[in-house]
Design a protein that fits this description.
Blueprint lengths: L15 E4 L1 E5 L11 H7 L4 E5 L5 E5 L5 H16 L3 H11 L7 H9 L10 H19 L3 H7 L1 H20 L1
Antiparallel strand pairs: 1-4, 2-3
Helix pairs in contact: 2-3, 2-7, 5-7, 6-7
């Protein structure tokens, strides 16, 4: 459910709301083999989309527990906004967790003109960079622990320990 003129929806995941909204189905793309919004939404269990004319037409009836990934994502967004307000924070949020709501039109246009708009979409490249940096950090840490370095091996231990973190990151960014 989106509200025009705002960067956030009127409710969070799991919230029960009452709204005066226009509801629509997602449409398939008009070209063969295309994967559009309908397929992405279906993978997340969403079948309809809605839009309210004004935020006052949306009332939260009951706050939900929310999804744990959405809760973590919201906390990360808030932390980045507090540390880096403005366009820089918007760019960091886009590159780290895929939240492009903070990118202004000038920055978006600059990325499109340079042919780099794909960098703003979290993809396998971002996942590889995050997992690679995490493994390097863990290898450096595990090399300092003789029992791990000489026994199981620092690289092997780092890879095993990085797997759950990479899985959580994948769920976090969608």
């Amino acid at each position: 459910l989106t509200v025009p003129g705002t960067t956030s929806p009127c409710a969070g995941p799991g919230d029960r709301i009452r709204a005066w909204a226009r509801v629509r189905k997602y449409e398939d793309p008009g070209f063969p083999g295309g994967q559009g919004r309908k397929a992405r939404a279906a993978r997340q269990g969403v079948t309809l989309r809605a839009r309210v004319a004004d935020a006052k037409h949306c009332v939260r009836v009951r706050q939900g527990r929310g999804l744990w990934t959405a809760t973590i994502r919201t906390r990360v967004q808030r932390a980045i906004r507090e540390v880096l307000p403005g366009p820089r924070g918007g760019l960091v949020r886009a590159l780290s967790i895929g939240d492009r709501s903070g990118i202004d039109d000038a920055t978006r246009t600059a990325f499109q003109t340079a042919g780099l708009s794909h960098v703003l979409a979290v993809s396998g490249l971002h996942l590889a960079v995050v997992s690679g940096l995490l493994v390097l950090l863990l290898v450096g840490l595990f090399r300092r622990i003789p029992g791990i370095a000489l026994g199981f091996g620092a690289h092997r231990a780092a890879a095993v320990c990085a797997l759950p973190a990479v899985a959580v990151y994948t769920l976090l960014v969608g």
